[in-house]
Amino acid sequence: MAAPSTGKEHPDGHASTATRLTREQSRANTRERLLSAARGAFARNGFHGASVDEIASEAGFSTGALYSNFDGKEDLFLELMEREIDEHARELTDAVRARASMAERAKGGARQWMSMIEREPELLLLFMEFWAYGVRDPQVRPKVAARFAQMREVLTQLIADGVREFDLELALPAEQLAIAIDALADGIARQKLADPEAVPDELMGRVLSLLFTAVTRPASDIAPPSAS
Questions:
Q1: In the prediction, which pLDDT does 67 show?
Q2: What is the Cα–Cα distance from 190 to 228, expressed in whole angstroms?
Q3: Class of domain 74-217
Q4: 170-180 pLDDT tens trace
Q5: Helix H or strand E segment including 170
Q6: In degrees rounded to 5, what are phi and psi of residue 170?
Q7: φ, ψ for residue 218 (rounded to 5)?
Q8: What's the rounded Cα separation, in Å, for the pair 172 and 166?
C-alpha cells in the first residue's frame, strides 16, 4: 500500500507551493478579520477605548493571534488608517477625473468629501483622535505624518494633472495648494460634525471654486520672455 502523501515529495514543488499559498491565504484572512473587527471597535469606542482583547475576541481569535500579525493596537490602527485613506483617495479620484474644468473638479471632490462626513462621521472622529494622540508622541508622530501625507500626495497629483490637462498655470506650487485644500477639508469636517446646520453642504465646493479661480490662469496668458 502506498504511503500517504506528505505534500513535500513532488519534485516539481507543486504541493509545497500549494501549502505555502494556503498558509499565506490563511494569514491574509486572519489579518482581514482582525482589521474588520478593529474598525468596528475603534468606531464604537475610539482609539483609546478599544482594547486588543475586544478586537481579538470580535474577530474570533486570541490576543496571541493579534500580536502574531500586528505589533499591537497602534500598529493595527496605523494599517487600518492607511487602508481607509487609500480607499478615500480612490473615491476622490473617481469623483474628479471626468470633470470638464478645474472648478468642476473642485466641486466634485468637495461633494465626495461632504458625503464621507455624512456617511462615516465616526471614522473622521477617529482620525482626529489619533492625530491628537500621535502628534504628542515623538515616536508616533512620523508615522501619523506619513499617513496624512498620503492624502496630500493624492491632492497634489490631481492638481498637477488638472493644470496640465487644462493648460493652466498655478500662482503657487501644487504641493502647497494641496496642503491648503487638505486643511480646509479638515476644518470643514470639524465644523460640520460639531454644528451640521451651520455648514451648508455646498460651502466647500464654492470655496474651492473661488480658490482655484484665484490661483490659476491660462498658461497662454503668460508673456514669453523678451529677446535681449
A1: 94
A2: 54
A3: mainly alpha
A4: 999 999 999 99
A5: strand 168-170
A6: -95, 145
A7: -60, 135
A8: 17
Q: Hey, what's the cell of 226?
A: 523678451
- In the chain, where the domains are located: 16-70, 74-217
Residue found by looking up cell 465616526 in the block: 122
Please give the DSSP secondary-structure letter assigned to residue 196. G
**pLDDT classification of 21: cutoffs 50, 70, 90:** low
| pLDDT of amino acid 178 | 96
Q: Give me the CATH topology for the region 16-70.
A: Arc Repressor Mutant, subunit A (1.10.10)
16-70 and 74-217: identical CATH topology = no
Is 102 exposed, middle or buried, given 0-12, 13-18 or 19+ CB atoms closer than 10 A? buried
Cell of 14: 507543486
- Grid coordinates belonging to 113: 468629501
Model pLDDT for residues 94-153, shown as the tens digit of each residue: 888 878 888 899 999 999 999 999 998 988 888 888 888 888 889 889 988 888 898 899
CB atoms under 10 Å from CB of 164, counted, come to 10
Region for 62 from its dihedrals, namely left if φ exceeds 0, alpha if ψ lies in -120 to 50, beta otherwise: beta
| Residue 16 in grid coordinates | 509545497
pLDDT value for 2 = 47
Q: Quote the pTM value.
A: 0.78
